[in-house]
Structures are given as structure tokens and as C-alpha cells.
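Minutes, project check-in

Agenda point 3 was the complex the collaborators sent over. CS summarized: two entities, 758 residues total, and the question is how they sit relative to each other. Sequences were read into the notes so everyone works from the same version.
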Amino acid sequence: MLTQTIDDLPTPALIVDRAILDRNLERMSERMRHAGVMLRPHVKTAKSIEVARKAVVGHDGRITVSTLAEARYFAQGGFKDILYGVGIVPSKLAAVSELRRLGINLRVVTDNLPVAQAIAAAARGGDTFSVLIEIDSGAGRAGLPWPEVPGLLDIARVLHDAPGVELAGVMTHAGHSYHQSTPDDIAAVAAQERQAVVGAAEKLEAAGLPCPIVSAGSTPTAVHSRDLSGITEMRPGVYVFNDLDQQLIGSCGAGDLALSVLASVIGHYPHRNQLLVDAGALALSKDISAQEFRREVGYGTIVEPPAKDMAVVDCSQEHGFVGAAEPIPFGNLPIGARLRILPNHACITAAGYDRYYVVDSALDGGRSVVDVWDRINGW
Amino acid sequence: MLTQTIDDLPTPALIVDRAILDRNLERMSERMRHAGVMLRPHVKTAKSIEVARKAVVGHDGRITVSTLAEARYFAQGGFKDILYGVGIVPSKLAAVSELRRLGINLRVVTDNLPVAQAIAAAARGGDTFSVLIEIDSGAGRAGLPWPEVPGLLDIARVLHDAPGVELAGVMTHAGHSYHQSTPDDIAAVAAQERQAVVGAAEKLEAAGLPCPIVSAGSTPTAVHSRDLSGITEMRPGVYVFNDLDQQLIGSCGAGDLALSVLASVIGHYPHRNQLLVDAGALALSKDISAQEFRREVGYGTIVEPPAKDMAVVDCSQEHGFVGAAEPIPFGNLPIGARLRILPNHACITAAGYDRYYVVDSALDGGRSVVDVWDRINGW
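CS then shared the predicted structure for the full assembly.
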């Protein structure tokens, strides 16, 4: 394995540059330590024990997951404090209890009174739960909308009064930070995020209710926030790899993208100045988020070999159509030549794969495969 | 297992209605038999042994695959004549030979002279190959563009003259049929597809070269073609399940969609007339193909419970945002209620899952889970 290079890999393959990954992890960890905030990385991006273990260095090991499959996988990997960040439904409480009985503090989230009542009822059977109340700080996804937070105290009291249930705090995710494109605009969203979740915590405390955890975070707001006071933990996710979308909104620089898809040239079409590669919709995903800011990124841009404005302009299931503004140097890219493609949205692209091939650009330009890491998919 | 109902399933889950599937399979099989054309279904949609076994009933068992992982999986499942329909690269020939040595006639495709030469060279080591030449009948993806077909005879001669290499024929895929919206327009594409691939076959035969296989097909052209003379086999794929895209272009009716995603309601947001469900970008895919014809389909429409114009209007990784033109009946859809969502593009949606839960609407309205079928993902 140690002598394998990326030229030996079957394509398409998912490549992680460890040097960039480590730098991304260190930077976020330091930023949070400097702010006095605990990092609870959202491991839904890499879904990898190895990446998560590196991500929590310097913090206390808490993580966020997006599925029960992730919760089980990371619990097996030794993680003990896990926040399941997608609104819980009563039918999933049994699976939550199963992990909690093994000593995993799997915490759940709700914004709904009947669900809080169902959790209280489930705890009467002897199970314990730890629950955070979700606040909508402006993203318009889940959560009680700030500043009204309708029903906040009712939900909180049901949870707090139920034996076996811990009212663990409040959480929010400022997903609208993904649609800003300047540090100032992101900082404004971060201020909104802080105001909503800290404000909700203050409402609980004013009512005599506990709120030990005040949880916020997205990669853009974690990077550009100017004030995290009152927040106890941040939950950025995609910063571990970054991607074209994060680059274009300014969460990272062009050299901070750790994830790429390795593909082979499978066809030459000079009459339309296109190549085909064996990375299509399943290998890249059909996520076009970064096109919001730069249409030319298509389904991913070519980073290796260095190519000006070469991108996957279209894709079908297993075919990627590579186009360019200038004539493609077909002679330098024979059939079988390998390209590395930067994805629009790392979380979605990575979900097509069951493993990462790890290279290290600081070691030998990223040619040798230095490790293979698995990841968990599905639910 | 036989007493399990869809209410017992964890969500999100992928549901196949066997009654609809069987009807779709029977209709296509009959259509091809009536036309005197062999069916070589493209199994990249379901990627399931069970579905493929049903699909080839009444035909000779030949199939098409889109990845080497599929080739291996279907070879293990007993399939012997497998066309790998994505342009081959020399580095993948060793994997092809591995299956061929086990008695699997895994055929490959190219449109490139250096690749043909590489195949000829590989065969000098004692391996055998069966190769089809790809023709571009107007889709603008892979293949030698018709009518010029530049280099067709050169490629054909290299293959035909190489000991151990079978020049097996020509193939095309009229992918542009997916962007038509009337039976007449699709029939016109089908005529183009036939003309190109039969024309290429005639060029080979006129040059004294063999061309036993003349292979065409997409679901829309297989459904709406009016003349298949000269074509020996058709390779439709998505017809097994159909989806919103196929419905909107007229390849099937509204009652012919066999695949759906089962999701749970996880949040109520009456202030914006939205529900959240636990099926987001990974459970539905970010494929928006059907939006080309009807924007309101979003990332999938709600089919169960019956709801007028209710659709997943947006999604993040694990959250689907369900909106509707009319006020949502929140009281009938409490947290935990289950919805079934019809996907835009079955092939891409199914790729997020490792299994199908099979129901049968002809049996009990589709409530009982009558079987579980696995599928192969990755490469």
C-alpha cells in the first residue's frame, strides 16, 4: 500500500490531501480555542473516524452527526458525546436509547411540543434523553423562528420537568451564511446566529430553566464571526475539506481544498472542444451550489494537471463532460490520463464513495497514497 | 420480515412497488419482442440482481452495465453477456480480463484509435476482448459523430485484425431523447439513433468487416421508436422504475412510477407553509432533471398521502423542505407521519441506498414489505 501512487488507483476515486486537511483542522481548532468556544465538528462531511479524531484534537471530543448510521459508526469509534443534529421523530427514539444504554451521550434536537411530550413519555419507561431545542436564526430551515421563538418555554418545561430527560440547551445553524459572498455579509449572519441562540438561552435562564449548551455554527460563520460571546460550542462541518462553494463565498482560499475526485480521460471530442472523463453525476454529485457565485465551475473544476478554466460542464450518470474556454491540449491528455476535479460541495460529492485515498502534498507533491480511510454512508 | 409494513421501516428508505415494476418490465419486454429486437437492459438504474433477472425474461439474458463494480456483481449473479457501456481506458483492461477468464463475455466500448491499439496490444498477451465501436447519433456525448464517423474503419480494422479481439459491432445512446417532450419529437430522435447506428454498421459491412451487434437505446426511444429495423438490441434503463422526468417527457404514465422515497415529517413550519422531512440531498439526490419540464416538481413530489402539488421545494444534506401551493394540512401530517416522494431521476436517487424495500400495490395497497433486494454502488 505504501508504494501505491495515485496513478495506480482505479477511477473514479476520492482523494484527500492530508497536508491541506491538517491545516484546515488546525486553523479551525485554534480559532475556536482562541474564542474560548468548544468545537463540536459536524462530521457529516467526511463521515470518517480518522478525520473526526484529528478534528477534535485540542477540544473535548464532542461531535455532531446527521444520521443514526453516523451515530453508531462514531460511537464504535470511541466518540462519547454526540449531537444528532436533525430533528428527532418519536420512531427514532428506540435507536437513540440503544446507543445511550451503551454509555454514549447521544443528544437529540427538537423544536416541537408533541415531540418533547413523546420524549418525556419515552423516558417514563426508564430511558434517559438529552435534548437541545432548535432555534431558527434566519436560515428558514428547522427551529423556532427568532425572535418570536413560539412555544420555547412550553417545550423547555416539558423537557425539564420530565424525569430522565435533560434539557441540555439550545442550538441553531445559520445555513443562510452559505449564500453570502463577502466576509462582512457572513459576519452579519454570524451576528444574527449568535443573537438568536444566545437570546433563546437567556429566555430559558430568565424562566429559571437550565441551558448549559448554547450551540451554533456553520463553516462560514465559524470563520468570519467577530463575537462568539455567550456561545459555548460551534459546529462547523465542511471546513475539514472545503470546496468550490466555500472558496467562492470566502470561507477559505484556493489552496485550502483538501478533497478532489480522481478521474480518467475516456474520450476526445475535439470537434466540440470537449473531453469525457469517467466521473459523472454519481462520482461528482449533481450539486451545483458553487454555480450560484460562478457559473463556469460547472460540476467541478480541474485542478490537476493545472488547466486554465477547465471544468466539468455537464454530466450524465458515469460521464463527465470537460470543457474549457481555450482549446483543450488533447495531446497532453491522452485517453487514460488522470485529472483531479475539485467538487462544488464536498459533503455531497464524498457521499458517493466508501473510502478516501489519502495523499500528502507536503510529502511528495501528493503522488503516493499514504493511507486509506473508510467512511459511513446511508442511514 | 413478511409481517413488516412500511410503517416499521427506518426513514429515509427506498421503496419499490413490485406490481408497477413488473408491469414496466413486461411492457418493454413485449415491445422489443414484437419488434424482433433483443433487450439488453441497462441495469445501472436498479443495480439489482433481482430486478435484472426479471428484466431479461423472454430475452437471452444479455445486460448493459455502467461500472466495473456492476460487471462483477452481475457476473456473480449469473449474467454471462455483459456490455460495459462507458468508454474503456487501457488501465481497466486487466479488470475486464479477470472477468472474461471466468467465462463472462464482458464486452467493452471505444471510439478511439489509440485505445483500439491498446486493446490489440493487450490481446497479444493471450487475453481476448469483445469490442463495440461507439457512435454519436446526436446526443453529443461519446462516440464518433454521425454522419462523418471519423476513423470508424481504422478503429474497426485494428480491432478486427488483432488476434484475440472480436469486433462485435456498433452501439449508440440517443441521450438527447431525454430533452424532448412529445412522442413525435422522441420518435424523431429514435429515427436519428437508428439511422446513425445502422448506417455505421452498413459502413463496416461495406468494407468487409463484421458487425453482428447493432445496439441502440434509451428508455424514451425504446418506447416511442416507430422503426427498429437493422437494430439487433436495445438498451433502455430507467424504464424499470420510471420517474418524474420520464413521466414529463411522456415515456410513461403517472401510474408507472415504481420507485419512491419513504420519509418522515420532522418539523412543522406553518408560518412559511412548509414541512421538513428527513429526506434531503443524499436521500433524494440533487438531480433536478424534471424541472426542465415542470419547475414545481422541485426535488420530488409527494405521492402518498395524496396531496395536491406538494413537493420537496428545497433540500440540504438531510433535510427536505416540503412546500405546497395550498395550505398544508399540518393536522393530518404530525411529526413522524410518513410521506412517499417520487424522484426526479430514479437512477441517481437510488444510488444513495444499499437496498430496496419491496411492496406490492396489487397485493394490499403496498403496505406490507414483501421482500428486500440489495443493490451495488460505487466503482
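Noted in discussion: DSSP finds twelve helices and 18 strands in chain A.
Follow-up: revisit at the next meeting once the mutant set is ready.
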